Amino acid sequence: MNKRTAVIIGTSHAAAQLTISLRQEGWDGDIVMIGDEPFWPYHRPPLSKTFLSGDKSINDLLIRPTALYDKQNIQFRQGLVTAIDRNQKKLTLLDGSTQHYDKLALCTGARARKIDIPGSQLSGVHYLRNISDVQGIQAHIGTAKNAVIIGGGYIGLETAASLKKQGISVVVLEVADRILQRVTAPELSTFYSRIHTEEGVKIYTGVTIKAIVGTTCVESVSCGQGMTFPADLVVIGVGVIPNVELAIAADIEVDNGIIVDDYCRTNDPNIVAAGDCTNHFNAHYNRRIRLESVPNASEQAKSAAAMICGIEKAYHSLPWFWSDQYDLRLQIAGLSHGYDHLIIRGNIQEGRSFAAFYLQKGHLIAADCVNRPQEFMLSKRIIEKKLTIDPSLLANELMPVNLLL
Ligand SMILES: Cc1cc2nc3c(=O)[nH]c(=O)nc-3n(C[C@H](O)[C@H](O)[C@H](O)COP(=O)(O)OP(=O)(O)OC[C@H]3O[C@@H](n4cnc5c(N)ncnc54)[C@H](O)[C@@H]3O)c2cc1C
Question: Is 381 helix (H, G, I), strand (E, B) or coil?
């Protein structure tokens, strides 16, 4: 009997989970994972954290030992997929070779958004998405004295913290009038500005970047308002773009990500998708969203694998995320967009441990918890299960977390 083949495009968080889940769901055909990076699936979050700061090696990053994929008979094929022929169920790779599939999973993720300003091609200017990006940055560590980070989002700030830890003088430039504007309340932006300032990182907001200046290597970054910052290393972290071009070319429905249903199906019954490249309807927030987070990639992959095996396992997870900077672990439950009231538990003005609860019409919709794992777990539970809580209790530090509900 001819065995059927499941092919996964992408070799990262979604793919790593999907391949293993396929075997768990009973797929006994071939499994081929195709990715353009020369590595088995690895953890991406440490790239701006412990890997950049030199505390972890590439081996430490691997999501699973390679022996496990061997044991499960999962093949890894390195290459860039350039076309999907849905009629013939055939993929074409950049080197001209092809790959047949019976079932296909798109786990193509996202790539760093590039900026097009004078000097952005100079040596010493980097983005941060892959191991090779970090290796490029690390080549300057030891000699670089001044780093400029363009973008005050989580990746920019984590990169700032990691470079600072290695003795480099760091400036963060943010075009918006506060850091983390897209994702948090102003109170959180103020908190992180204070922390970075205390740690010796300089943050400038409301800054227009005019040019990256240098002859072959970067020498400075020139901004509006007549400001120039010396730099021998520039890291740009201005968001990501989902990798959806393959899907678009194959007439798979895309709208800010590949459109998937609750079971991670695309508009082709033989093709599922999972992770950063997808756009799904999230019942917790009653709207379609595209998430950029490891938990989302892993959970969607479980539903996608089940679907390939003909089993309906709906994906209904609450979005959650984390960020590590210095001694701070931020854990975020839910999405705060649309909140009308913020309650802070703890000392956000001077301390390094607090929880910020986002409410909408009296209901908890999200929480940012800094060094507060208990509040994070509580918030996740409340939001997931739509439980009600007396908002006046949340701010009361005298009330132990386990008695809040
Ligand atoms: C520096 C950094 C820090 C982060 N920190 C956190 C964090 O703290 N917490 C958190 O939850 N999330 C974090 N994230 C986000 C998280 O890493 C992503 O959400 C996650 O990696 C998404 O996984 P994915 O499998 O969907 O896609 P990706 O990780 O983007 O992987 C997609 C893979 O597919 C490959 N690919 C794409 N197209 C093709 C093609 N045509 N042919 C072959 N291969 C292809 C890509 O090269 C890539 O290897 C961070 C991301 C970065 C970059």
Answer: helix
Residue 129 beta carbon below 6 angstroms from any ligand 1 atom: yes
- Same domain, yes or no: 332 and 361: yes
Q: Are 377 and 346 in contact (CB under 8 A)?
A: no
Beta bridge partners of 272: 105, 265
Tokens of 284: 């917790």
140 and 107 in a common domain: no
Residue 359, classed as helix, strand or coil, is strand
Number of domains in the chain: 3
Decide if 140 is inside a domain: yes
Residue 293 beta carbon below 6 angstroms from any ligand 1 atom:
yes
Atom 6 (ligand 1) nearest CA: 45
Crossing angle of the two packed helices 186-198 and 154-165, in degrees rounded to 10: 10
| Ligand 1, atom nearest to 294 Cα | 11
In order, the DSSP letters of 193-252 are: HHHHHHTT-EEEES--EEEEEESSBEEEEEEGGG-EEE-SEEEE---EEE--HHHHHTT-
Residue 196 belongs to domain spanning: 125-236
- 228 and 134 Cβ atoms separated by less than 8 Å: no
Q: Which of 8, 34, 44 has most ligand 1 atoms within 8 Å of its beta carbon, as the pocket-test mutant?
A: 44
pLDDT tens-digit readout, 251-310: 999 999 999 999 999 999 999 999 999 999 999 999 999 999 999 999 999 999 999 999
Q: Which residue minimizes the CA distance to atom 41 of ligand 1? A: 81
On whether both 35 and 98 belong to a single domain, the answer is yes
Tell me: the pLDDT tens digits for 376-399? 999 999 999 999 998 889 999 998
Q: How far is CA 371 from CA 42, 66, 201, 291, 359, in A?
A: 26, 33, 21, 23, 20
In a domain, 19, yes or no: yes
Instruction: Dig out the tokens for 178 from the structure.
Output: 């506060």
Same domain, 85 and 136: no
Which residue's CA is minimally distant from atom 17 of ligand 1? 44
Of ligand 1's listed atoms, the one at least distance from the Cα of 79 is: 43
